[in-house]
Amino acid sequence: MFETPLTVVGHIVNDPQRRKVGDQEVIKFRVASNSRRRAGDGSWEAGNSLFITVNCWGKLVTGVGAALGKGAPVIAVGHVYTSEYEDRDGNRRSSLEMRATSVGPDLSRAIVRIEKPGYSGPDAEPAPPAGAGTTGDAVPTAVDDPVASDDGSAARGPLPLSA
C-alpha cells in the first residue's frame, strides 16, 4: 500500500480526546499550521492555514495524553489520508487526517525536560533506578530556567509546554 508521509508543525487547537476502539485506545486532536510571510514594508502578513486531525495509537496515547494539551506547539509526523463520511444532513464530506508515528513538543517554541529512566540528558544527574515509580515513557515537562526574551533580557520562572 502506498502511504503519504507528512510532517506538520503547528499548535493543538482543541483538547485531545481519548477513547477506546475495540481493545485499543486512541487519542485524537486537531493541529493548525499557519504560515506567514514578509510584506514589502517588512511587516508580517498571514498566509494559508492547514487544519488536520491527528490520530495517535499505541504508546503515543500515553505520552501525548500526559504531556500535550490545547495550545501546545507540536510537531506531528505520520501518514496522511482523506476520511470520507456523511454528515447529519446526508451530505458527503471529507476531512484530512493523519495516523501519527511520532508527536512531540516543538522545541523552537517550548522548553521541556524529558523524564525517562536511563536517559541522563545534557545534565550529569543520574537517572532514577528502573521501577522507581515511573512508567518508562518519556514525558516532557516544563523547566525553571532563565530564558532570553525578545528584548534580550532574561526571564525566570516556570514555562508551560505551550510557551
How are the SSEs ordered, and which strands pair?
Blueprint: E1 4-12, E2 17-21, E3 24-38, E4 44-57, H1 59-67, E5 73-86, E6 92-105, E7 113-115, E8 139-141, E9 147-148, E10 154-155
Parallel strand pairs: 4-6
Antiparallel strand pairs: 1-3, 1-5, 2-3, 3-4, 5-6, 7-8, 9-10
Organism: Mycobacterium numidiamassiliense
Region (Disordered): 114-163
GO molecular function: single-stranded DNA binding
Radius of gyration computed on alpha carbons: 19 Å
Distance between the termini: 39 Å
What characterizes the major β-sheet? 5 strands, mixed, barrel
Indicate how many domains the architecture comprises: 1
**The CATH topology, please?**
OB fold (Dihydrolipoamide Acetyltransferase, E2P)
- How would you spell out the order of helices and strands? EEEEHEEEEEE
Query: From the coordinates shown, what is the CATH architecture?
Result: Beta Barrel
Low-confidence parts: 133-137, 142-160
Overall shape: flat
In what range is the share of β-strand residues? Answer: over 45%
State the CATH class: Mainly Beta
How many DSSP H or I helices?
Answer: 1
InterPro entries: NA-bd_OB-fold, Primosome_PriB/ssb
Region (Disordered): 114-163
Keywords: DNA-binding
Pfam families: SSB
